[in-house]
Amino acid sequence: MLELKLARLQTLDNLLVELRTILEPLALAELFPQPQPLEVELGCGDASFLAEYARCNPQKNFIGVERLLGRIQKLDKKGQRLGLQNTRGVRIESAYFLEYLLPPNCATALHIYFPDPWPKKKHARHRLINEQFPTLARRALAPGGGVFLRTDDRDYFHQMNEVFGAAKEFEKVETPSTLAEITTDFEREFNAQGIPTLRAAYRLKF
Fold this sequence. Notes:
This protein has about 210 residues and is an alpha/beta fold.
């Protein structure tokens, strides 16, 4: 038993998950020292939000998903500097992670903050929050779980609300003030320029 505990503690030296396969869901019990409610940030960027949010909520586990190596390495560095045993990073496309790697009904919240807006109409199909996203979110979330969205792009914000508004399994709710107070680096830069944060939140009905 002692050897098992030591082996698990040693894995905390690296917060990035080495995927054994991308064809099967993650074994979440193997990733964290403690079994706790799980929240996921899709497109965690440089982890400016996730690291602080995880620090403030040690009673929860967190996974940050990011496809760019330099950004996911920042999650590792920030998490280790803060001693975050409740945080892991996965380098992969967010949509693929949500559909194939996240076990069903395991997450209490999904966070998507300032995703690429793909502003040109011909590129809008590449947006993460599209007509299929509520179905993927419903599969990933536990009953009562929430989806928290932020963007600075009004057209994308309209699309976010439109697709979730059409999803009968979800109901619109307010973003908790304690969550809204924790901002991303992008968000602070936008706000400093007078660009407001557009927020929306939806809860999966029981």
